[in-house]
Write a structure and sequence with these properties.
heterodimer, A: about 110 residues, mainly beta, six-stranded mixed β-sheet, B: about 120 residues, 11 strands, globular
């Protein structure tokens, strides 16, 4: 089955800095890669996703890049704000049915 | 509330007891999922169902059981065979029979925190 590795497990940045979270996956057949944000005590929410037919996707301050050859994808957050503080999960599809998640990155943005 | 309702929000289980976690969605989604979340472990798949009256085991199904008698409901029973059930349980759903087909990803419920006492 699919295996998704996520790094770093924790990330501390100053407000206004950029943050990058990286994930690798094992199954070359995977072709859908979503990112979820989970604030403390709340449900995970989809913030951005990318499919394998594109290399990069942007939505305001967040972007995701995908390198299918190397089997890795990354989340980039620019101009970080305190409200970006949360746990971020990457995921990859396993066939048509399910998502396999990374172990999460706790992002702390200090004012 | 996001179209998926999980109840209760907090649940306490005694040793040797079975407990059932409720998950109901009004999104008309075909596929439903149960994940377990532990600190530092991410989300691990317990069971999933793509259509009514059918479900599949995930990576950590031992000690759990599910049913899918109605499209909108996918309850999870934590049995006494689950030796370490204390965790945060998340239910999710997606349109079609999986998250990839139209790239909608999952919609999650707000979770149930289960504690063994």
């Amino acid at each position: 089955g699919e295996n998704v590795e996520q790094h770093p497990s924790t990330l501390s940045v100053q407000e206004g800095d950029s943050a990058v979270i990286k994930c690798t996956y094992s199954d070359s057949a995977s072709n859908y890669f979503p990112w979820y944000k989970q604030e403390l005590g709340k449900r995970p929410q989809l913030i951005i996703d990318i499919r394998s037919n594109v290399g990069e996707k942007k939505d305001q301050r967040i972007a995701v890049t995908l390198n299918k050859t190397a089997k890795h994808f990354s989340l980039h957050i620019t101009e970080t704000q305190p409200e970006d503080s949360a746990v971020y999960f990457c995921a990859a599809n396993e066939g048509y049915s399910t998502l396999t998640f990374g172990k999460g990155t706790m992002l702390l943005v200090s004012p | 509330d996001g179209g998926i309702t999980q109840s209760p929000k907090y649940l306490f289980r005694k040793e040797g007891q079975n407990v059932t976690l409720s998950c109901e969605q009004n999104l008309n989604h075909d596929a439903m999922y149960w994940y377990r979340q532990d600190p530092g472990q991410g989300l691990r798949l317990i069971y999933y169902s793509q259509i009514v009256n059918d479900f599949q085991k995930g990576d950590i199904a031992e000690g759990y059981s599910v049913s899918r008698e109605k499209k909108e409901s996918f309850p999870l029973t934590v049995t006494s065979a689950q030796k370490n059930p204390t965790a945060f349980y998340l239910c999710a759903s997606t349109a079609d029979q999986g998250p990839y087909i139209r790239g909608y990803g999952y919609t999650f419920g707000s979770g149930t925190r289960l504690t063994v006492v």
